[in-house]
Amino acid sequence: MVRTETAKTLNWSEQAKADVADFYNRRNGSPAYSNRLNRKFQERMNLVVANPYSGQRWTDDFRYVIVKPFQLFYYVTKTEVIVAAVWDARRDPDILKLTR
Predict the structure, then answer these.
(1) Quick one: pLDDT at residue 80?
(2) Omega of the bond prior to 93 within 30 degrees of 0, cis?
(3) What is the pTM of this model?
(4) Domains plus CATH for the chain?
(5) Cα dihedral 55, 59, 61, 67 sign
């Protein structure tokens, strides 16, 4: 099956923004590392925008890509790729709650 779709825009949910801010503010003491990680997140998600179904399927609604040691969970709409959560993969996945 070939999917032909129009270009999508990338957006970050409030939860994903909070996840990133929490990591930057509480867990990381290095602005240089934070900037590098943010750049890696953006680069990876730009690839996803170009091919939205390239990520691993998590549920029927959500997919994810890996930027070690993080998983970026996202979902796709007709016009957007929306990052729903940024998850440290070293944490227990049973407490991960994803919402659209």
Answers:
(1) 97
(2) no
(3) 0.85
(4) 9-90 (3.30.2310.20)
(5) negative
